[in-house]
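Checklist before submission:
- one chain only
- standard amino acids only
- sequence pasted in full

Submission:
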Amino acid sequence: MPDQITINLPDGSQRELAAGATASDLAASIGKRLAKAAVAATVDGTQVDLSVPLRDGATVAIITEDSDDGRHVLRHSTAHVLAQAVLQLWPGAKFAIGPPIEDGFYYDFDLPGGAHFTDEDLDRIEARMREIVAEGQPFERTEMTKDEGLALFADQPYKREIIEGVDPSEGASDGAVSAYRNTPEFIDLCRGPHVPSTARLGSFKLMRVAGAYWRGDEKREQLQRIYGTAWESDKALKEHLVRLEEAEKRDHRKLGVELDLFHFPPEVGSGLPLYHPKGGLVRKLMEDYSRAKHQAGGYEFVFTPHITKSTLFEISGHLDWYADGMYPPMELDDGVKYYPKPMNCPMHILIYKSQQRSYRDLPLRLFEFGTVYRYEKSGVVHGLLRARGFTQDDSHIFCTPEHLDDELASLLQFVVNLLRDFGFEDFEAELATRPEKYVGEPEEWDRATDALRQAIERAGLPYTVAEGEGAFYAPKIDVHVRDAIGRRWQMSTLQVDFQMPNRFDLEYIGADNQRHRPHMIHRALFGSVDRFFGVFVEHTAGNFPLWLAPVQVRVLPVRDDHQEYAGQVTEQLRDAGFRVDTVDAAEPLGARIRKAKLEKLPYVLVVGDDDVAAGTVGVNPRGGEVERGVATQAFVERVRAEQQVVGKR
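Returned file contents:
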């Protein structure tokens, strides 16, 4: 056995270590700062504990606590500490799963005797967790056969169910299961990796209690879920809590009511919004903008019905692959089943197929604001962000193979320009590849995926690959943005689809006078108009830019005898094309100004004696300094220039 091993580092360099050295030893050999920040390692593409001995010739990257992967490890380890604390405080409790999630973690529990957690319990649990952290308990990995695992967790039915479903090819090195022990009394089923000991944790906070069904199945046991957040430092934790406070202020459901935009009445049903006049106007302006952009981009407008016979979704494959996400059918016409549509694409395909197409007709770009209906489980419905009925700005492009690359590159630029007009600047693409269940041939999927990858690279967008996250019929590009407080949102989607043209036997006559199969691109820029609306409300905190504000200007007379002049100013602004209203002097001026600010209006104009005499206005801009004696026409020109900034690309 050699005395030395050679380790390959991510930058291409190599490092010599003593045989039997661990990932922790490697970090220490590189530097004290790295050793202190290390929480796990990646060895030949697999994440492992720092205590794992390294193989000669392995490629190793150290995972640090301030990286996304490092925070994942911290949060996963903190979830184990949460489970240990709960089982100590509630003897006989059953614990289910406790994964890390974005910005935090959770754990699901079944308490003895039907007990329920209270908000006060969170303080007790957190205090016990801090005791466990102070004890510096090691995370020690152990591997066992399935039978040994079932015996070890004999009194934990949820763990036993997980073990019984383990695929040996995905288990521990002996084809079984792995677990991590912190003390002789506490062990948890887990793949890992974890931090070396609980002493590496501590910057965490338990957030709330919620209900959750086991395995997400409403027919299974209802468990109690404790959510928490964990970070690499107290500073990072504090910054996150501040972001949460800001996010709460920006919650679109709250602002939707406060700004009289929309609401969700229980009489209508979960996930089905009603837009009020102001919200309806903002949405109309968004849609008008989109229609104009599409018309300029060579798209043709179509309209399709909300329901259709089951036959259409049998051909498309939705009834085979997507039935759980569809509303149940209505039986009409002597038993014929009609479904509310979850997708617009099959109907656009029928429009293409309604006549013979030539290569001269392509690309054919069909566009629709199409409302679709998807049966989301009640536990995941979340205002406009996860609704059951929503409208997509849906387009389907039918093109020849020669058109494909240019169409995709053009579409990505279209996406970026649209999002920039709405104030988003931080973009990232995600390439979602073939899922476990799919239709079509692997070679077709590979061709489509390569086309999408080349389009992203041509556009110069940073991107990540989401393995197995594509739709059942096509790979896709999801464009993500970061909002004003740093949250990441998935927005626009592009998919290259070879399957639907095959399933519907689509054709075009080529220049060789032969029949060919067109390529099909699915594309939504807003994605869901409703979801985009919700994200946009939170991004702006309801401070809509001038061109989208339902009321752009409000005119306030100081006294009743200024009302006539206020009306003249209002008419001048309306004639110039602005959305403006007037509130008379029935209330004190200060109260009216405060109300206008709560409504987040871009401009409030105050007119008094001097303004009546000079033909001016006092300008009170949202977030700016008050100006006196501004000529009304000068204000009109200023605001007109501000509004025309949008759409110049």
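Reviewer check: Residues 68-89 form the longest helix (22 residues).
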